[in-house]
Amino acid sequence: MGALAGDRRRDAAFLLASVAVILVTAWPLSGMVISAWETEGAVYTLVHSVFRATGWDINLVVVVPAGVVLGWLLLFGLDQSKRIQAGILAVAAVPFAAALWARGVWFVPWLSLSPFLLLGLLVGLLSGSIDKILFGLRRREFPLAVRALYVTTLAALVVGFVDLQTTTSVPLTQTAVQAGSILVFGGLFSGFVQYTDRQDILVVTPSGHRDSETVLLCGLYDSAKTAFDTYIVSGGTELNEARAQLTHDGDVDPLSSTVEFRFKPSGPLDRWTSVTADGYDVQTLYSDEIDRALDRLRPSSSVFETLRRWLSANLPVVGGGRDLTRRLETADLVLLVVPLSDPSLSRALAGEDLEDATAPGYLETYYELCAAAGGDSNVLVVATDADRATERYARTRDTEVDLGAARPDNYGQFQFELREWLNQVVADDDAAKLPDVGERSPFPCSVVPISREHADSERNQLVANADELLEALRS
């Protein structure tokens, strides 16, 4: 199971738990707010005093805020990142409406006051989208509306709780239930309003091979752009120039700056996924930094260990470290680029006798990272210039594998033998040979081969097998 697929399963469990928690807490919280109003405490007295002094219709205290909240809810429902959360919040409105109906309070002449309802709705829509109006933000997200809804809801609950406690005598058990419900509901709702809730993929590339990193990014971006909602965060000019180069002559210039793009599938539980590359090279890390990265990738054995790692990754004083170290600690998925155009690897793939050859240093570190991750799927090797490996496969198997085709029949066997070969490079420092059948041991994490040479223009491919890489990230 891929790292991102695992996140979708966790999201599904979280959403199901959210529905259950909201249904359990919404009824007592709704009753609490209504009771606070009915006891005519400080809030009730203040509101009535203001409306008497101004001569306004007291029903406006319900109608206008209802319009504002409705506007925020509409934007919440239209938010491309929050549709499911908006549906869950709508579930919470059902017990509240039922409590209003059962208690017979807050019934107002909605029809005659509909202009004020529309005014409130307009205020809600404008206040929740003012950032998009002023700054021209194109993505369909409304963080102001979502956060305003959160703050307003939580404030109403806290004020209602305090007002009820100070106005009337509430049994201790009921007080505990109400306080606990506010904490649970508020904590749950706070997770709904986060806009940093995305999955981060870090691309790690050996020094001197950013052209291979460029090919990976071009292929992955093009495949994601074809299938999903996609946008470029940084390095767009370079990325688009590289894509144009691949289209015309198949060669690309290495990237010279940070490139980041994001994509989001249309599934209700899919989150935005960020892919970042900045020429990160594990060979620049010191041994203690590698140890920290390995520690991050190993499955945690306890809740306390999970907490310690979280603190290490999120608190500067505890975490520290350079940029690459921090990125390795916090990334949801790490893509390790193995350029098969590397002289020692390409000569071995061509069948040269390399008895004195040694594995590239980065490959040994990759092996350690993959082995530390174990059966987890948060590390993936991407073998670029894989046409060199397909040529070797054709010689040894007397059959060809076309990476430009829609998953050829022998792709699985080719992929597994490539993993075996990489393992042998590290294990024996002898890339010219493969162990006999029955003695094979694959590289400790999955390997996805991609190739610009195999790209099929009729299928609008920039990089062959990039679709398979995208699927490997999500499956």
From TrEMBL:
Keywords per UniProt: Membrane, Transmembrane, Transmembrane helix
Regions crossing the membrane: 12-36, 56-77, 84-102, 108-130, 142-162
Record bears the keyword Transmembrane: yes
Stated name of the protein: Uncharacterized protein
Originating species: Halobellus litoreus
